[in-house]
Specification:
The protein has about 375 residues and is α/β, with parallel strands linked by helices. It has helices spanning about 10-20, 50-55, 70-90, 125-130, 145-155, 220-230, 300-310, 355-370, and strands at about 5, 25-30, 95, 100-105, 110-115, 115, 130-135, 160-165, 195, 210, 230-235, 235-240, 245-250, 255, 260-265, 290, 295, 340. It is about 25% helix and about 20% strand. The protein is elongated and about 70 Å long.
Amino acid sequence: MTRVLVLGGGIAGYCAALAARRDGADVTVVARAPGATALYAGGMEIVDDIAAVLRLPHHPLARLGMDAVGLATELDAAISTLQLALGKEGLRFQGGWRSRGLYADIHGLAHAANVVPESVAPGELGALSGKRVAVIGVPEVGDYDAASTAQALKELHGVEAFAEDVSIPDLPEGAALTDLYGRRAPSPRARGAAIAYPPGFVNLPPDGFELLASPPSPHGWRLQQAISLGAVATEIKALETTRDRVIAARAASRTFRADAFVLATGRHIGGGLRAGRVTSEPLLGLGVFYEGVPVASLGTRLHHLEYLDAGEEMRLGAMTDKRLHPLNEDGTVPYMNLYAAGAMLGGYEYGGDSGFGVPILTGWLAGRFAAKQDGAPQAPRAGSP
């Protein structure tokens, strides 16, 4: 049985573990801490237009060498498996990459999403057209105003929304939205209307739904808690290598050996990339690229671009071949049993319309590729335990 070690506890690492286990591998997931997955607002953008993505030469999905049909098939498998796995943990999602809806956040602003929690799905703005919607406010909470949210829903989206305050006297003084997390949803006086709740409540009534959040997000914490189950909480300090293979991952007090390794360590929050005068990959010194060019060779030009638009930094990242092997700066593959997935990959905008599509699909494929290693034990490097 192939032993696969997944480094990273976000959605990419979770999908890699799902895929590798489905293909018969023995999988261990190691996670340092929650990453950017815990910050998501409640709606997953998967991909808007596969054909458009395939025209972007440096996009991680375009670099897989698949056509639109191949990508669509793998996306269907990855998303259905992900939803099934999360549902078993009590976190149910609806939707798929082929359809997209608009959902309002706590300020009444619309956000596009393909996949949303079951608690959010009834709030799709198109489905609310012509309905009365009661927006629940809590007077004790100071960082959320239901009246302004209802006004925005009415003015921006044509929803017949109105605010209704429901007091929760036992909240702490100066309560925030985060203090609502895990509380049973209060029942409003309004009848015959859909009910929009600020995120965090549980046991919503049949006609209730949650709004999207802003960080720190209850939606994000629920997702992070579900995907973190079974992960080993530790930080990998170094990877042990031979000439063209990784043989072990070393933490402070433990060494993990495997036949294949998946790097799903994220960007700056997760520690997959290290920002500095030149952005670097800290574990193996893998190549970091901007539009296909090593960042170390760009010098002041990249700094100038980042000065004009701080978002340019978020387009940097590792590059991979068709099998998701990460590349050196010269474009070669240094380790044949190492795969990379998720937000550490460059060539796309993490907050864009494929922000979840990249980690879900590259994680899924990296897990599949890793599970197909031959499983033969690798000789340890001299001096290693």
